[in-house]
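Example record

The entry below shows one chain as it appears in the dataset: sequence first, then structure tokens.
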Amino acid sequence: MSVDTEKCVHCGRCTAGCLFLEKYGLDLAGLAARPELAYNCFLCGRCAAACPMGIDGAALALEMRKTDGASLRRDPAYRLLLWEKAPYKFSNYRRAKGRAVLFPGCNFPSFFPKTTAKLVSVMEKHGVGVVYDCCEKPVSELGLAAEAQEHVRRMEAELRDRGVEELVMVCPNCYRFLADKLTIPMVTVYEKLRQLGEGAPVRRDAFPLYYPCPDRAERRFFRDILPFLEGEARDAFPDVQCCGLGGCAAAREPALAKAMAERAAERGGELYTYCASCVGSFRRQGMARAYHLLPLILGVDEAVPLGMGSLLNRARRAL
């Protein structure tokens, strides 16, 4: 369905909440007239939350991004990403055994390999297997929705053939993207840990929280995390639009991506979240006290690799 921007009342709320729209002096109706800027949008959803007419700028940008992919595969900004993920080079279904299977996604094993190993060990103790694959969200967001959907179809067929009846999701991006594409039921890893009696409470006086873009509205993941938090959990970064990695837009807008992450770093102190990509982005901007909650719940202390080590970590999962 086409996004209707004709109902835009030009109130400016979307522009006020978005560094990208502000940079180009656009509202959502104006964006609709600038298809060349489709890949500059971070797809963070801030505009839809602000718009009194319910216009979804992320959906609009995705509509404008539809492509056959040939030009993207030649584009240096996206060539490596598409080489790796279209289709995903590091898929591994060898341990996808049992009724329930853990789905860590791409970036969590990349940034938190020790925690991933601990989580896999905990899950396997309870008969929960593990599969390494990409949900294909980045591929779909680059405009290759049909290609991504075909990968998801093959993923479901493989899981069904192995008798999988439940996916345990680590990444809120994977969960949000696959929720309406897979028929296999999904639970968050935090709900599963609670069911299994695993994980330990994390105690702090306060948890300054950054809610990842895919969980910002519904906060499904956050609700499942809350029982593990002993201390005040508060939204401490409400004006941080995105970690800077949304929508693969950093390739077109590196300065804006840097500014978004720096806005969080400027607050100083600690930041807690539950998206590995966000932690990686904030750490790259010098926010050394940006923490993912899952390693804390599992009692794992590890450094976050910010260079090629993250790619090597996820490649090792294919072995």
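Notes for this example: The radius of gyration is 19 Å. The chain has a mean pLDDT of 95.
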